[in-house]
Amino acid sequence: MSPEKLLKLANVSERGAVLLGSSTAADGPTSRPVRVVTHIHSDHIIGLGESKRKSRFIVATPATLDMLEALGHRIPGPKKRPVGYGEPLDYEGERITLHRARHVFGAAQVLVELEDGFRIAYTGDFKFPGTPVLMDLDVLVLESTYGRPDWVRPFKDYVEMLFTDLVLEALSRGPVHVYAYHGKLQEAMEILRSNGVDAPFIAPGRIYRLTKIAEKHGLSVGEVLEDGTREAEEVKRSAWYVYFNHMATYRRRRLGNATNVILSGWEFREPLRRINGSTWMVALSDHADFEDLLRYVEESRPKLVLTDAFRDGAAEILAGEIERRLGIPAMPRPRL
Predict the structure, then answer these.
(1) In angstroms, what is the C-alpha Rg of the chain?
(2) In whole angstroms, what is the distance from residue 101 CA to residue 37 CA?
(3) Domain ranges in the chain?
(4) Which stretches within the chain are classed as H helix?
(5) How many angstroms separate the Cα of 291 from the Cα of each of 142, 156, 303?
(6) Residue 269, SS3?
(7) Checking DSSP bridges between strand 108-113 and strand 119-122, what pairing results, if any?
(8) What are the start-end ranges of the E strands in the chain?
(9) Residue 268: what are its φ and ψ, rounded to 5°?
(10) How far is CA 83 from CA 54, 80, 159, in A?
(11) How far apart are CA 132 and CA 33, in angstroms?
(12) pTM above the 0.85 mark?
């Protein structure tokens, strides 16, 4: 089948909805009956209020649905459809299945199988390796956040250990404040615990609640104290703890006696970079870099790749590189 005909199976709308088959839209608003939310980040819950009005079902993993509610996005019970990884949902001749994505907790890839045998998929945001590759696809819609050839992290295999070492060394001198976005904060907690950091963890209300939800669904980070409680205040007096902050609070919350650690994916030169005497940037990303995006496509071998040009990234460049290096037809959608 030609790329033009395959485009009838999948596309990305100008409002950011990833269109899969005839019934399903992911991560953006449409009038389609099924809206899938791949994860909780703001560029993937666009138009959720509109979808709650127009779509018949809002589909996501149980963890994502619980976290959306904690973030204030209340979905009416009859429309809420939790779907576990690998659990098929059939709707009007199309089978929708969510598959694990290594990104923030609860993130998913979306596979839609049509009655005539066509298979189309959307990766959502993901990190690789650690995300299962979806195979035998006619069309793959691919995230393109780090879609330029120079957006590569040669240190990605050991940055987690360097992050842990930085935190351990800083704890010998005082508290550590970690700054990141929702989801990555919980990933950071798990990394530190799994690498032997046993200092108390403290988080403000919303981050604390999201962490407890993630724990309910399988995250393993041990005890986390909610800021403002008596236990948390006692720990603060000890000056031996790790405090987890949302990135938006960095400039107003940072404390002079603490080591500040900012987690950012937009750092490619070195794994750790000192910004000033007490602040470090750590190149910890929850996205695949350019090499990993190509590797996913190479292993998947779809007939057509659509690179997501709605969200930040380099969709047009990535599509060109996929065609040039792998010989697989690729194009950005929507057209830039």
Answers:
(1) 21
(2) 13
(3) 3-150+287-333, 159-282
(4) 3-6, 48-54, 62-70, 159-171, 184-194, 205-216, 230-238, 250-253, 290-300, 315-326
(5) 14, 11, 20
(6) coil
(7) antiparallel
(8) 10-12, 18-20, 24-26, 34-36, 57-60, 80-82, 89-91, 94-100, 108-113, 119-122, 139-142, 176-180, 201-203, 224-226, 242-246, 259-263, 272-276, 279-282, 304-308, 330-333
(9) -120, -10
(10) 20, 10, 33
(11) 27
(12) yes
* CB-CB contact of 333 with 316 (8 Å): no
Three-state DSSP state, 226: strand
Q: pLDDT band at 336, cuts 50/70/90? A: low
| Class of the CATH-defined domain 159-282 | alpha beta
Task: For residue 25, list its beta bridge partners.
Answer: 19, 35
Q: What is the pLDDT of residues 175-226, one digit of tens each?
A: 999 999 999 999 999 999 999 999 999 999 999 999 999 999 998 898 999 9
Percent above pLDDT 70 for the chain: 98
Q: How far apart are CA 209 and CA 66, in angstroms?
A: 10
- Chain-centre distance for alpha carbon 105: 8
Closest to 54 (Cα-Cα) out of 87, 25, 91, 81: 25
Dihedral over Cα of 134, 138, 142, 147: its sign? positive
Number of CB atoms found within 10 A of residue 189's CB: 25
- Which structure tokens are listed for 168? 């351990």
In this structure, the chain runs to a length of 336
Give the CATH fold of the 3-150+287-333 domain. Metallo-beta-lactamase; Chain A (3.60.15)
Structure tokens at 265: 């994916």
